[in-house]
Design brief:
The complex is a heterodimer of chains A (496) and B (347). Chain A has 496 residues and is of the alpha/beta class. Chain A folds into 2 domains: 2-235, P-loop containing nucleotide triphosphate hydrolases (Rossmann fold); 253-495, P-loop containing nucleotide triphosphate hydrolases (Rossmann fold). Helices cover 32% and strands 25% of the residues of chain A. Chain A has helices spanning 40-47, 70-75, 93-97, 112-126, 141-153, 171-186, 198-204, 227-235, 289-296, 319-324, 334-337, 345-349, 365-378, 395-404, 425-440, 452-458, 481-488, and strands spanning 2-11, 14-24, 29-34, 55-60, 63-65, 78-81, 159-163, 190-194, 207-212, 215-221, 253-261, 269-274, 278-283, 304-309, 312-314, 327-330, 358-359, 362-363, 413-417, 444-448, 461-466, 469-475. In chain A, a hairpin with a 7-residue loop joins strand 11 (253-261) and strand 12. The longest helix of chain A is centred in the middle third of the chain and has 16 residues, at 171-186. The radius of gyration of chain A is 23 Å and the shape is globular. Chain B has 347 residues and is mainly α. Chain B has 15 helices and 2 strands. Chain B has helices at residues 2-18, 26-43, 50-83, 91-106, 113-116, 121-148, 154-173, 186-189, 198-216, 218-228, 230-234, 240-266, 278-288, 300-320, 324-346, and strands spanning 191-192, 195-196. Chain B has a two-stranded antiparallel ribbon. The chains are: A alpha/beta (496), B mainly alpha (347). At the A-B interface, helix 10 and strand 18 of A face helix 10 and helix 11 of B. The structure holds adenosine-5'-triphosphate and magnesium ion. Residues 40-41, 83, 163, 394-395 of chain A line the site of magnesium ion.
């Protein structure tokens, strides 16, 4: 059993945690929820030895402990799946699985065989089709997340902290992760589960704890509340998840892709999007949709096929050119593809839009700040100074900054890959609303998402991909989770 | 107790940061100030005649700065290159290559190109400097293209260029000893009130321009973005190849300027040895100034401070009478020390 008592933490003058007291029991899955920037990750980072608390105590089974480093925490039996991916790209999967606790054989050499075998075993148990020898660099975000989860699971920890483990996973993997969590729970492991997907919380957790502005404002049994209650606890008022409406004016075609092929990620893809339309793309792990749109953005080479922008054939050989042709692309996997860790918030938010505030390559600081100020209020980004490093923002707020860099760019077509990853329920609605307004203003929009619910709420029609090919299209009546899942698993829509 | 001092430290740092500098050069400035105080003490403070003391102190400083202006300018370009995640080992060779061209153009002997064309005086000087800068730009761009289009690792590409530029220069300059006109030497040796400080002015101007480029232009910020997260930069529509190539082109231009200063200071150049070791000195200045070798972090001001630290330290070692061969060891030590400090700070 772990108890954190009266934990306080400030960053500079900013009080992030105020007298937070929580208890986690073995054999229980406990949800930790709260708005973006509420302090969830900070609290867990203190338990994980990443940050040091200013005051308060931590007890494990009644005796006080002190975690000066992440290793201390790990040695005390606490495994931590961080919000951002934490793998070494230049090592194969199986070596990543044992980072920092590599087994050695009797000669003192790395026991690679054992590492491989154990990795294979856990993948087998999780029913994951991955070769442990694959370099992590070649995995996409979802697979990386799975590797992280497996790594934590095989640590024989007594407590596992999962900070938004499901943001880039699709339904089948989430299901398998939940099954694993269930097994671990039965073995007496305690799990702290952070998520902005409240339906997941309702499904898997027994208890909930809600942080708001660094204070613990509610806790109790999940069976006593509804998802709406949880949302209300988080923000302090009701959240309307009304049906999204917009004035739908579909104009001429903006983007057309014909028989696009990649070396391995996708084949024979043809699609088109029109002005004012919101097209969804979904599928399961390894469906190739991210690579497909990276290719359309000029960041991935294509083997054959054509891309047309407003009926003109575009031969893309770089992202700058794609940008100039009016294509915008917000990638998934924030940490690796979007965040520039050595730049401050303002600069991260203005890396795309410099033509709007620079003349002859010289930056007009005032204009730059004004442009960002607009987005800051529009997206309710919770931050302090523009000059703070981007890493001082909470995960969800980083995501908003990344989104903010594309909004004023005004591309003809905006591709959003998992745009709401890690943002809280309230902000999610805001972002949906912004996307609709952009479409109303005549932008063509493509939303890539693994959440069928998101696709259904947001999109006019959606293409479902399966193993690099477009398996089918859903729209209107067929836009249901059931049909999407059918196509995503390689089936076809029943002839009606 | 530890926490107390750490908090104190971060308060002071915070104060520096709130004074407008995004990257505080707190540690670097501190080290420099300590070294300068030490140097002043060693030089001895003359209470009887403050004026006299000050003028000799100033003279010593002008000497230090003037001697380091050329390499100081090179280190600024090196900073930009390192921030992109690259390195340029060819600076010394580019320096002799441009130096050779400058001298050939201006030679007062029978082979002097401009003399043959009847071009002398200021117009010849301007054309020479212009040609040198263009040549530096071209050589830098070639290196940049090898790295970006040719996909050769910066270390390898510039190592190759380093060998090629110097050996070709030496070949063509074999047995040829051009002399530059005496007036050309004014560029570096003009005396104002019996002080010679022109190279310092060039250094300051170049540093100011580069600081502006690095902090206020799109290119400068893109350099940081590319070095910090190349993939994210690319996915934000940044033309990564062009940004990198331009960093090397800029490096070439700066080396050409350094070359002009070098030639006009002494009027001759030893093509076999001139500029050798510049790459290491430039890298050292950048590192001491807080530039991180893996890219993404570094500032022009930091590098100027880094160069000053190395220069003052050299001066001190000189004053202490440390044998010249040992001085390089101290340079090595301070670089290692700087990196250790950086690691502690980022942890
Ligand atoms: N290293 C840091 N330096 C300064 N401020 C920080 C730092 N880390 C976090 N913060 C601030 O602490 C607050 C809480 O952040 P935290 O990451 O704990 O939020 P969170 O609840 O995990 O949010 P999210 O759901 O977006 O992940 C935020 O306002 C954030 O800006
Ligand atoms: Mg978080």
């Amino acid at each position: 059993m772990i108890r954190m008592e009266n934990i306080n933490k400030s960053f500079g003058a900013h009080r992030v945690l105020k007298d937070v007291t929580i208890t986690i029991k073995g054999g229980e899955i406990c949800a930790l929820i709260g708005e973006n920037g509420a302090g969830k990750s900070t609290l867990m980072n203190i338990l994980g030895g990443v940050h040091q608390r200013d005051s308060g105590r931590i007890y494990i089974n009644g005796s006080e402990v002190e975690f000066a480093t992440p290793a201390d925490s790990l040695n005390a039996g606490i495994a931590f799946i961080h919000q951002e991916l934490n793998l070494i790209n230049d090592l194969p999967i199986f070596e990543n699985m044992f980072l920092g606790r590599e087994p050695v054989n009797k000669w003192g050499r790395l026991d690679l065989d054992r590492m491989r075998a154990e990795t294979e075993a856990i993948f087998g148990r999780m029913n994951i089709d991955l070769d442990p020898k694959t370099m992590v660099r070649n995995l996409d975000a979802s697979y990386k997340q799975i590797v992280e989860i497996c790594r934590a699971i095989m640590m024989d920890a007594s407590v596992i902290i999962m900070d938004e483990p499901t943001t880039s996973l699709t339904a089948p993997e989430i299901k398998r992760v939940f099954e694993m969590m269930d097994t671990l729970k039965k073995q007496g492991v305690g799990i702290i589960f952070i998520s902005h997907k409240l339906n997941e919380v309702m499904e898997i957790c027994e208890r909930y704890m809600v942080l708001r502005d660094g204070e613990l404002v509610a806790e109790g049994l999940v069976t006593d509340v509804t998802a709406d209650d949880l949302a209300r606890f988080m923000v302090g008022h009701d959240i309307s998840t009304d049906v999204l409406t917009r004035q739908k004016i579909i104009g001429p075609e903006v983007l057309r892709v014909e028989n696009l092929c990649h070396t391995h990620a996708f084949r024979n893809v043809s699609l088109n999007v029109s002005k004012g339309e919101i097209l969804g793309l979904t599928g399961l792990l390894g469906d190739g949709r991210s690579e497909l749109f990276q290719a359309i953005f000029g960041a991935e080479p294509i083997v054959s096929g054509d891309i047309f922008i407003e009926d003109r054939r575009a031969r893309l050989h770089g992202t700058e050119q794609a940008l100039n042709l009016g294509i915008g692309y917000l990638p998934g996997n924030r940490k690796e593809n979007s965040i520039i860790k050595d730049m401050n918030v303002l600069e991260n938010a203005s890396i795309v839009t410099w033509p709007l505030f620079a003349r002859q390559g010289i930056i007009d600081k005032k204009k730059q700040e004004n442009l960002f100020a607009e987005q800051k209020t529009r997206l309710a980004i919770r931050m302090r100074k523009n000059t703070d490093n981007i890493n001082t923002l909470s995960g969800g707020n980083q995501q908003k900054v990344v989104l903010a860099k594309w909004l004023p760019a005004g591309p003809k077509i905006l591709i959003l890959d998992n745009p709401t990853q890690g943002v809280d329920v309230g902000a999610k609605e805001e972002i949906y609303d912004i996307v609709l307004r952009l479409a109303e203003e005549g932008m063509a929009i493509v939303v890539l998402s693994s959440e069928a619910a998101e696709i259904i709420r947001l999109c006019d029609r959606a293409l479902v991909m399966y193993q690099g090919e477009i398996q089918g299209e859903v729209s209107g009546d067929t836009m249901t989770e059931h049909d999407i899942m059918r196509l995503a698993t390689g089936g076809s829509l029943a002839a009606s | 107790m530890h926490a107390g001092t750490r908090q104190e430290q971060s308060r002071i740092r915070g104060w520096f940061e709130s004074r407008g500098a995004a990257d505080s050069h707190f540690g670097t400035v501190l080290v420099l100030v300590i070294l300068i105080i030490l140097q002043t003490v060693v030089l001895g403070f003359d209470y009887s005649s403050v004026g006299h003391w000050f003028s000799s102190w100033a003279r010593n400083w002008i000497n230090i700065l003037r001697n380091n202006a050329g390499i100081g300018i090179v280190s600024l370009g090196m900073t930009m290159v390192i921030i992109t995640g690259g390195i340029d080992l060819a600076v010394g060779s580019t320096l002799v290559a441009t130096g050779a061209v400058i001298m050939t153009l201006l030679d007062t002997g029978p082979k002097g190109l401009f003399l043959k064309m009847g071009l002398t005086g200021i117009p010849a000087f301007i054309l020479t400097v212009g040609t040198a800068i263009i040549l530096g730009y071209v050589l830098g761009t070639v290196i940049g293209l090898l790295i970006t289009k040719g996909r050769i690792a910066p270390f390898v590409a510039t190592l190759g260029a380093m060998k090629i530029f110097r050996s070709v220069t030496q070949h063509f300059m074999q047995g040829y000893n051009p002399r530059v006109p005496r007036e050309f030497l004014k560029i570096s040796n003009l005396t104002v009130g019996n002080l010679m400080f022109m190279p310092i002015i060039y250094w300051l101007v170049v540093a100011a321009v580069l600081h502006y480029i690095a902090t206020r232009t799109v290119f400068g910020r893109q350099v940081i973005a590319v070095g910090s997260n190349e993939r994210a930069a690319r996915l934000s529509g940044v033309n990564v190849e062009r940004v990198k190539t331009r960093a090397y082109s800029l490096m070439g231009i700066l080396v050409a300027i350094a070359s002009v200063i070098q030639v006009s200071r002494i009027g001759s150049m030893d093509f076999a040895n001139a500029g050798s070791g510049y790459e290491m000195d430039a890298i050292a200045a950048a590192i001491v100034g807080g530039t991180v070798m893996s890219g993404g972090r570094g500032t022009i001001i930091g590098t100027v401070l880094g160069m000053l630290i190395i220069a003052v330290m050299n001066n001190l070692l000189n004053l202490f009478g440390v044998p010249p061969f040992l001085r390089e060891a101290f340079k090595g030590l301070i670089v290692i020390f700087a990196v250790l400090l950086q690691r502690k700070e980022s942890a």
